[in-house]
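Task: fold both queries, return C-alpha cells.
Query 1:
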Amino acid sequence: MEQMTRIQQNTLRRIVEAAIELMSERGFHRVSVQEVGKKAGICEKTVFRYFATKKSLLDEIIRYRAYASELKREFQNGRTWNLEHDLKLAARLYFQETKAKRNAFRAYLSALDSVDTNGEDFLRDPRELHAFLCDYMTAMQEKGKVRAGDVRLMVRAFVNTLHGYMLMYCLNDDGKSWGDKVASMKLTIDLFIQGFSQTGNSVTA
C-alpha cells in the first residue's frame, strides 16, 4: 500500500476510523468487516482491498494510536530541567495523547488475544517513550538533580505507572470514579518526584 493517492489515503483513514469507533464500543471480535465498510460508507470488498484480513486492520489501528514521537517533541520543547516541572509535563502530555486517541486504545485493548505484544508495531511507542525519558533522567543525574541509581528502572517504574492509569482511563466510563483516580495519579507522580529527587524535598501542590 505504498505511494497511495490522496483518495486512497482518505479511504484507508475512513476504514480505520470506522473500525475504531465500532470496536471501541463493542469490541474487536464483535464487529464484522461488513459493518466496518457500512460505517465507512464503502463496500466490504473495498475494505478487503486495503486490509486482506481483520487482523491486518487491527495492526493498522495499533499504528494509528502512535503517540511517542509527538510526545517527545512536545516534551523537549517544554522541559525546563526542573524535575518536578518536567515529570509532571511528561505525565500531562502522555495523558493528553491518550485522551486524544482513547477509542483507538480501547479498540486494540479489546483484541489483545489477537495482538502480537512482542511485535515492533506494538512496542515501538513504549520503547521510544522509555528511551527519551532515560536520556532525560541520565542528563538530570549528570546535572546532580536526580539521585544515583539505575535510570532504566526509575523510568520503567514511572512509565508503567502512567500506563496503568491510562488503562483505567480507557476502560472506565464512570466519570465520577475517574475523578478519584486522577487525584490518586497526581499523588503518585508527586511521590515519584520525591523519590527521584537528589534532595528528596517535598514537591509543591
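Query 1 returned. Query 2:
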Amino acid sequence: MDGGTVTAAANEGGTALADPRRECVASAGPPYALPATLTPSKMSRFMSCPLAFRLSYLDRLPEPPTVDQVRGTIVHRALQLLFSSGAADARNSERALDALEVAWTEPAMREEVGALALDERAERRLRRETGTLVERYFALEDPTAVHPIGLELDVRVRVGDVELRGIIDRLDRLEDGSVVVVDYKTGRAPRPEQSRSRLGGVHFYAFVCEQLLGHRPREVRLMYLKDQVVVVESPTDQSMRGLRQRAMAIWAAIGRACESGDFRPNPSPLCRFCAFQAHCPAAPAA
C-alpha cells in the first residue's frame, strides 16, 4: 500500500430469493452457513434486527435501493473520480462536478437510478442534491493538499476464526508518514451526544488498517457533506481493544444464531423503512 493508490475489489454478491412470508421465516432451516466476512454493516444489521440480518445476508432477499443510498453512492463515486484522475492542483469544484457527470453516466449508476423508478422531476432534484453535496465538500478541506494512498479501498484481515472486511472511502498519508481514515457521509450530522456512536465503522477500519500496516491510523474522520461538519477522533488502545471485543462478541452471537436458527425480529420505529416487512412475522398486518 505504500506510495500508491489502491482500488477496491468487487463487493460480495448473491442470488436473490423470493419466498412468501411464512415460508421465508422458516426457509433453509438451521444450521445456516456463517457469512464469509464480518463488516460494519453486518454488525449493525445483526444488532438492530437479527431477522433482517438473516434475510439480507443469509437468505439474500433483494433489497430495493433507496434515494438516500443512491445519492450517497453517486457522490462517493464522484469524489473517488476526483482523487483518482489528474494532478492534485487540479482538484477543484469544476473538476469535481465534471466527475459527478461521469458518475451519473456510468452503466452501474444508471441501473441504480433506474431501479428507483423516479419521474423526471424527482430525478432532476436528485441531480441537484448530488451537485450540492459535491460542492459542499470543498468547505471541509483543501483537496489539493491531500495525499490519498487508497480510494474505495477493500481491506480484509483475519482475526481468530473471522475475516474482518471493510471498504474505506479514502486512506490518506500525512507528511510524517502516518495515515488517516476518511469516511464521507451524505446524511445529516449527528447531534454532539450521538457523534461518538457513529464512529464505530471508522474505528473498525482503523483496527483493520492497524493489523495490515503494523501501525495505527493517527485519526479517523467522518465528513458530513450536507451539514459541512467533520467529526475527528484518534483511535486509542482502549477503542481498538473495545472494537475487537465487540466484533468477536457479535460474531459469536451470529454463530449461535446460525446454529440454532434463532433469528428473531426486533420491532422498532425503524421497521417502517425495512424492505423485509412482507417477510416478517412481527410486521403489522396489511
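Both queries returned. Flag for query 2: The beta strands are 148-159, 162-173, 179-185, 219-224, 229-233.
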